[in-house]
Specification:
six-stranded parallel beta sheet, 5 helices, 12% strand, globular
């Protein structure tokens, strides 16, 4: 915050969001950072909000919604499992260490229904601010279909952050589905 001169005297502090940059290790089997390393980084940078360590899924296939989960490719299911496991650990560390950082869990999926399931799992952990990842390569219609599926199942008080998405022409639709923030 200090580096970017966000602590402006006599003005409201501009909130900052830390992200571990999952696209930089998308080709790895597992994320190269631990939850503790990421939390140390977020704390050192004095971020107000922090995104849990995640593992991007880049194979979006809406047709997988018609399949039993066990028929979805194992690598996709494994990436989602890792992301949810790390989100649970991140949540626990944030709660037990009394950090002032607001944690965001990350939903990763391979289809609209799998994203909705990830959001439900994150809500069970305790998250009410959830980042939706892996959307960058999707068409706007695919993003909207995914957000609609999430909206059908998410808690009314759960807010969404869209990772890497700034599609100004559909901001009002994103907002209707619970998106309150985005980055690019």
């Amino acid at each position: 915050a200090e580096f970017f001169r966000l602590n402006r005297p006599n003005r409201r502090r501009l909130p900052t969001l830390g992200d571990c940059g999952a696209f930089t290790y998308v080709r790895e089997k597992v994320p190269p950072y631990s939850v503790d390393e990421v939390l140390q980084f977020y704390t050192a940078c004095d971020f107000d909000l922090g995104i849990s360590v995640d593992h991007v899924i880049l194979d979006f296939q809406p047709r997988f919604d018609a399949l039993p989960t066990e028929d979805v490719p194992a690598d996709l299911r494994e990436r989602q499992r890792i992301t949810l496991e790390l989100a649970a650990e991140f949540w626990a560390r944030c709660r037990t260490s009394k950090l002032r950082l607001q944690p965001l869990g990350v939903a990763q999926g391979w289809s609209p229904r799998s994203y909705a399931a990830a959001v439900t799992a994150l809500e069970k952990i305790g998250y009410r601010y959830i980042a939706v990842g892996g959307l960058v390569p999707l068409k706007t219609t695919e993003i909207l279909t995914t957000l609609a599926a999430i909206h059908e199942t998410k808690s009314q008080d759960t807010r969404l952050h869209l990772l890497g998405i700034t599609r100004i022409e559909v901001l009002s639709e994103f907002e209707r589905f619970g998106a309150v923030s985005f980055d690019s």
